[in-house]
Amino acid sequence: MATENKFYLSVQYPDPRLKETLTRSRIRRWVQAALLEPAQLTIRFVNAKEGRALNRDYRGKDYATNVLAFDYDNELIMADIILCTDILKKEAREQGKTLIAHAAHLIVHGVLHAQRYDHERSNKAAREMEALEIAILAKLGFPDPYQ
After folding, report:
1. Is 107 inside any structural domain?
2. DSSP string covering 74-102, please?
3. Which of 27, 46, 78, 126 could form a disulfide with 119 if both were Cys (CB 3.0 to 4.6 A apart)?
């Protein structure tokens, strides 16, 4: 995991409920830890309505999901990573995790997807991505999200 990659980061809060908790500087640290090469990323926090519409329109799945990563086929890593505030809060509560730990995990997960890691491709790919997430989060001081 490289820590010196240059990147451009835009953080958008059309759903502002987590703006004070999930600050740009905090998110920037998490993104940097997960980047293996230079990138241009947008992290966007949306409500359930927008999250559902994006998931339905782009993935054909008619429900809000926790994180969506849209990577663009360029030499430079470019992606929009969408987090649904409602699902993020609900999952953190249900899983007994802090909101910050769960958000860090989902952002790391989304950044890895942006770099073309795909846990749905095979069991081996899933194990590789999971191990990388665990290592990155440990480096950031977070517990194993899969425990």
Report:
1. yes
2. SSSEEEEEEEEHHHHHHHHHHTT--HHHH
3. 126
Beta carbons within 10 angstroms of residue 41's beta carbon: 24
Nearest to 70 by CA among 60, 82, 62: 82
Three-state DSSP state, 130:
helix
Confidence tier at 1 by pLDDT (50, 70, 90) = very low
Residue 144 included in any domain: no
pLDDT of residue 71: 87
pLDDT at res. 3: 46
pTM of this prediction?
0.91
The answer to whether residues 45 and 77 touch, using CB atoms and an 8 Å cutoff, is: no
Instruction: Identify which has the larger pLDDT, 5 or 139.
Output: 139
> How many domains in the chain?
1
